[in-house]
């Protein structure tokens, strides 16, 4: 299996970086090929802009997704994007490894999503959800956060974590057709003991060693909707 | 009323920019003070990093929120952040004006949130949700998207738009204590006629002229939870 880990944390010694290193070691130990995109170390540019296209379909008015389609077709997309896109297309499993910032991804990782998941390849027209351009691949989100576990879930103060992660899990990873595995979450990380961190590392290793047994999350399928994307069997 | 509009679109002639201009004109016409942060025009840096702090509480290990608290206290936070923070603290109403990228904010705007909503001022400890540091202020999200309205809602292919916007509406704006007004949404924008765009502009103007009549969205209140943030009256 080919694995791409996209890592986004500003502190190289962070626990989030330890999760990344453990994933590299564990997955290589199982015989998988692993590449890492360490966005802070790469000084990744997260800002989608006109500069992303060497040639423009419409130089007078930027429609970003339209230029992505042309750029991907003509290989005229910026080199930093093309490199990441090549890694993504190579991968069978994508791991997004990051600390929660405002119940979502840090901007540097959001900008990897904005720029690398190009229209025309990853999605476009009726190619989304189970028909998405990256179907056949798997995705795992591994994340750290400051909150305690009891602050998430039904009736808890922040509600279910999966609901906060909906734009990533459903709106991004499932949207481009990937099979999305349940997230791995390390809770309350800035405040816990070294032993508690070791427990999370052991749990993550065990999880990585048994990924094949994971039940992916369930999302809409296009066959449940008509040609105009109205739901079929609305009252069934 | 003081109004800060944070605008994030890579195309200066975009319809999203027309929404921004209309808001400036309409709100000034009503006698309000308006400032605009045009993130693309400002070449805003969205990447939270160690460079954001002139002096470090802990130079050997970056805990971003901790350094924010110290930096805000000592006024040693980066000048570009301090300028935006000053605008935010001046404002009675914050408008986030952007096109939906991956069911959430473009990275450049996510990085405004990551860097400007500093710990110790906007939130911290038990100061969040209705006790957040920005309580007393209002927030409005005005956005454009490619999808059609019938693709959102209960039973629709993408589910309710508010669920996709949860990390912004609840996890960010409500979290820092702002009163969050229902979003203004312009649907299917890249594909609609000039007349349909005019209709959206008229609807937005009417909305802006009657903001005082809006019913804010409802979110958790800390009084519903105990000292450890477990829910009270779990079975009530």
UniProtKB/TrEMBL annotation, chains A, B:
Pfam families: Flavodoxin_2 (PF02525). Keywords: Oxidoreductase. Residues 1-208 form the Flavodoxin-like fold domain. One of its GO terms (molecular function) is NAD(P)H dehydrogenase (quinone) activity. GO terms for cellular component: cytosol. The keyword Oxidoreductase applies. Belongs to the NAD(P)H dehydrogenase (quinone) family. This is Flavodoxin family protein. The lineage of its organism: Bacteria, Pseudomonadati, Pseudomonadota, Gammaproteobacteria, Pseudomonadales.
């Amino acid at each position: 299996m080919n694995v791409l880990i996209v890592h986004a944390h500003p502190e190289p010694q962070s626990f989030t970086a330890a999760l990344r290193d453990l994933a590299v070691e564990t997955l290589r130990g199982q015989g998988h090929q692993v590449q890492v995109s360490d966005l802070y170390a790469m000084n990744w540019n997260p800002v989608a802009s006109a500069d992303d296209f060497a040639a423009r379909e419409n130089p007078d008015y930027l429609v970003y997704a339209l230029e992505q389609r042309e750029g991907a077709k003509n290989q005229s997309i910026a080199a930093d994007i093309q490199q990441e896109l090549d890694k993504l297309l190579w991968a069978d499993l994508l791991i997004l490894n990051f600390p929660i910032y405002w119940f979502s991804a840090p901007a540097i990782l959001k900008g990897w999503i904005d720029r690398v998941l190009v229209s025309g390849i990853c999605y476009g027209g009726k190619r989304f959800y189970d028909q998405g351009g990256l179907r056949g691949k798997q995705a795992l989100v591994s994340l750290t956060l400051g909150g305690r576990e009891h602050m998430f879930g039904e009736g808890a103060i922040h509600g279910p974590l999966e609901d906060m992660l909906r734009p990533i899990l459903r709106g991004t990873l499932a949207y481009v057709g990937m099979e999305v595995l349940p997230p791995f979450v390390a809770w309350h990380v800035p405040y816990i003991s070294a032993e508690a961190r070791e427990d999370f590392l052991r749990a993550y290793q065990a999880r990585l060693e048994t990924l094949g047994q994971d039940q992916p999350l369930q999302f809409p399928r296009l066959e449940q909707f008509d040609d105009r994307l109205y739901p079929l069997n609305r009252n069934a």
